[in-house]
């Protein structure tokens, strides 16, 4: 990376990092139980009452961290998919991955299995979907983004039908839990560590690919002409994006909108340089989901909203404003 | 001589000195233990002072078991008895506000296995809160839960007679309608989609006590979804509907246009307030008595 690039990219990333830390601080300090600042500080410095310690350290902190990591995963996966498919409508779920995961998760719920089984089953469903879409799109002929996209969209529609079928036949007392999963809900997140680890590893791994991704974004022919080995590159990007999405979906269900809109928002503000957009999407996705989850927990407390509702409510106006302002 | 006379007064003093120790040993009691409906042994060091209920039905059961004053938090729609409306809310039964539960510092949380999110209940247990996992699918379950809540809340002197009364009343209804001619009944619990219950459901069991035969009793799912044609082809002798409120019998109206149906011809169209028969609580008796009276009327109209 050139010195000039670094100087150009560092400030926005530092600003986003600062906003990320602020959003985390906000998420940890707000909840349906008000904790006065003095008490909050006592907990931070290792004191405070047992109740406040439990609330902050056992409930809010892991949940905020999981939300940040999940949002980051979705942001990066969305950015990668948009580059890979060269389609602005692409999001992490466009190739049917969330549908496969949902069928897995709902099946586990139907059998009354616990959280671990639901997560495992969701991950397995996501992987099945990935292999299915890629295998079918590859087929016997050549491999094009359009073909991949169409295969993905149709497979997603197939999963959608299976999901509707399962919802129609599920016992009514299980339906709310299933709907919450489909809308995305951070209450499912147990430990933030898998999501955080995968996000950090993926960001570090994708960093050297930034330049090649920039070229790939202009089209496979140009990329090949400029010396990028297109096929292995596409496979890698698709595999990484799928893995990131699968981990995100496994952590908190099918949270929509983050993966679609966060990379676009950042491109409108920062320009389309993947070396900047990828880490920025990680931070931006994290910020959006942490803020959304904080609102979901507190807006109608003690009633709890699924976070997917809020991501769209926050994201839609922000995105429309940015789009309107840009020429 | 040489005997030391032990005066009665002295015996008394010695006895009195011991008394507090003895009674202390008595009241520091062994823990109260019950099996919940996952068949796990739940033990509290002493009867629970602060209880959180995670469904309207459980709240009702706690009040019936004499533990109503100890309920410090409950879910939305906990509307019975009147006092339940003033209890602070800690979310809805399908999403619990964990912070609100922890902040209430309960000694016991009573939960609904098939209605509450399992992962949240497990989380509460991990945070060191005692959870009673409950599920009431039969009349015996209702009585047994009352007894167990009485034990957990130290209000057995209220809960046990309540449970006994409930059992006797059920037995009386059973005896009364044991030989009654069966009435072919369609029980509608929802209108769009049209939904009924199978014989596993408490409502169908209640109907069976009244001598009614649920025309959809054999269906595999607890709350099957149906179409109108199927109901027409089964031609029930009586139709009972729930509704959106305590006196909203509007779900009966769509049936009236099918004048060929036996239930419509004989005007055996009945409404039973959903809360009096859909919750597994002692109030079930009220709904059952109403249902039995309706079935009796349907027999008279033959």
UniProtKB/TrEMBL annotation, chain B:
Signal peptide: none annotated. Residues 50-299 form the Fe/B12 periplasmic-binding domain. It comes from the Bacteria. Keywords: Signal. Pfam families: Peripla_BP_2. NCBIfam families: TroA_like. This is Cobalamin-binding protein.
């Amino acid at each position: 990376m050139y010195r000039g690039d670094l100087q150009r990219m560092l400030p926005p990333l530092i600003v986003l990092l600062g906003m990320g830390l602020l959003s985390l601080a906000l998420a940890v300090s707000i909840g349906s139980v008000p904790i006065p600042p003095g008490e909050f500080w006592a907990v931070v410095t290792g004191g405070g009452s047992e109740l406040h310690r439990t609330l902050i350290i056992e409930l809010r902190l892991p949940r905020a961290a999981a939300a940040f990591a999940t949002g980051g995963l979705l942001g990066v996966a969305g950015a990668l998919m948009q580059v890979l498919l060269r389609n602005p409508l692409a999001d992490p779920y466009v190739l049917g991955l969330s549908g496969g995961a949902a069928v897995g998760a709902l099946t586990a719920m139907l059998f009354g299995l616990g959280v671990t089984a639901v997560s495992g089953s969701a991950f397995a469903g996501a992987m099945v979907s990935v292999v299915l879409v890629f295998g079918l799109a590859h087929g016997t002929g050549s491999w094009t983004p359009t073909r991949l996209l169409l295969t993905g969209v149709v497979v997603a529609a197939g999963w959608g039908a299976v999901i509707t079928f399962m919802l129609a036949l599920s016992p009514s007392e299980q339906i709310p839990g299933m709907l919450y999963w489909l809308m995305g809900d951070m209450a499912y997140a147990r430990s933030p560590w898998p999501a955080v680890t995968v996000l950090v590893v993926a960001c570090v791994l994708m960093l050297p690919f930034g330049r090649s991704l920039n070229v790939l974004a202009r089209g496979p022919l140009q990329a090949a002409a400029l010396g990028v080995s297109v096929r292995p590159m596409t496979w890698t990007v698709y595999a990484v994006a799928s893995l990131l999405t699968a981990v995100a979906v496994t952590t908190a269900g099918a949270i929509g909108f983050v993966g679609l809109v966060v990379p676009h928002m950042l491109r409108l503000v920062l320009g389309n340089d993947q070396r900047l957009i990828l880490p920025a999407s990680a931070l931006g996705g994290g910020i959006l989901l942490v803020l959304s989850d904080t609102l979901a927990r507190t807006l109608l407390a003690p009633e709890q909203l699924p976070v997917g509702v809020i991501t769209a409510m926050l994201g839609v106006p922000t995105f429309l404003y940015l789009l309107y302002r840009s020429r | 001589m040489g005997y030391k006379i032990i005066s009665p007064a002295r015996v008394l003093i010695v006895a009195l000195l011991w008394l507090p120790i003895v009674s202390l040993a008595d009241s520091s009691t062994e823990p109260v233990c019950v099996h919940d409906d996952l068949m796990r042994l739940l033990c509290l060091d002493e009867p629970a002072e602060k209880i959180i209920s995670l469904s309207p039905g459980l709240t009702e059961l706690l009040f019936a078991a004499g533990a109503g004053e100890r309920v410090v938090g409950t879910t939305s729609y906990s509307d019975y008895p009147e006092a339940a409306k003033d209890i602070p809310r800690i979310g809805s039964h399908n999403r619990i506000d964990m912070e609100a539960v922890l902040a209430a510092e309960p000694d016991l949380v009573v939960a609904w296995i098939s209605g509450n999110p399992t992962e949240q209940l497990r989380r509460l247990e991990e945070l060191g809160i005692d959870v009673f996992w409950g599920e009431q699918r039969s009349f015996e379950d209702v009585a047994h839960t009352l007894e167990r809540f009485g034990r957990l809340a130290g209000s057995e002197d209220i809960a046990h007679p309540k449970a006994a009364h409930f059992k006797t009343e059920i037995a009386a209804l059973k005896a009364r309608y044991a030989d009654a001619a069966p009435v072919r009944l369609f029980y509608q619990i929802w209108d769009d989609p049209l939904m009924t219950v199978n014989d596993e459901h408490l409502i169908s069991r209640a109907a069976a006590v009244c001598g009614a035969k649920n025309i959809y009793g054999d269906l595999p799912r607890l709350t099957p979804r149906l179409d109108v044609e199927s109901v027409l082809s089964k031609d029930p002798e009586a139709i009972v509907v729930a509704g959106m409120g305590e006196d909203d019998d509007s779900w009966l109206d769509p049936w009236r246009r099918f004048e060929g149906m036996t239930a419509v011809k004989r005007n055996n169209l009945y409404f039973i307030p959903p809360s009096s028969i859909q919750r597994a609580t002692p109030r079930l008796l009220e709904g059952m008595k109403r249902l039995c009276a309706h079935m009796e009327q349907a027999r008279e109209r033959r």
